[in-house]
Amino acid sequence: MAILDDIRRFWDDDAATYDNAPGHRPTSAAVQAAWTAALEALLPTAPSNVLDCGAGTGFLSLMAARLGHRVTALDLSSQMLAKLSAAAEAEGLDIAVVVAPAHEPPMAPDGHGFDAVIERHLLWTLPDPVAALRAWRAVVASNGRLVAIESMWGDSDRLEALRGRAWDLVKRWRGTAPDHHGPYPAAVRGALPLGTGTHPRSVARLVAESGWTAPRLVRLRDVEWTSKLEQRLPERLLGVVPRFAIVAT
Ligand SMILES: C[S@@+](CC[C@H](N)C(=O)[O-])C[C@H]1O[C@@H](n2cnc3c(N)ncnc32)[C@H](O)[C@@H]1O
Fold it and tell me: The domain 2-248: what is its CATH number?
């Protein structure tokens, strides 16, 4: 698929600076603690076999490994995974990495299936999220679960779109560096079903459409709260994007 080559190129080029953006790594011990508590509550009891799809530089993979899970990190971009491996090595964590597209997940190392397939902020950049979600279902154990961690952004909701625009204005006023090395190619974004934003409604619908059952939504309020406490004025008045996880079996 040609579009996957464009997507891979974007993330390979982004790998060097991805972790500089505050949303791409915990910005304080409190934010880190909130993310760790959230992930611990969403995952099965450790140790379990976890597949992190679109793992990037390791935001979730590193946390899951620290919690005692056996983690396989999958990503289309070898450069993003190189960053993940370097971080894992620095901490003495053992994380297996697989360079592959999300719709071609590997089998679990012990052949019994993964206990959990997790992702954070991957679904929006998939040309066919349903195909990927279906493929993940085929590699989970019989009692395995999906943990899709997303935020509400973009044009999916009018109020969130306004908040996003206000944030962009404040960032420009402060001269804050952008979150990425460049804009996502417009032609790529236009070909992605969630390319202009994610909403709990659209994520829950895609998860159900893919054959996962009993979707449950968990709002990640402590992550939102601790992130907000890190902000200066006037950013704090604008608030933070709502974060949520959809868990399904
Ligand atoms: C927004 S980043 C999220 C990274 C990480 N999960 C995090 O929370 O920081 C999206 C990641 O998905 C990867 N990605 C994009 N399309 C993919 C695909 N089709 N298959 C696998 N990974 C993909 C990118 O290379 C990138 O690392």
Answer: 3.40.50.150
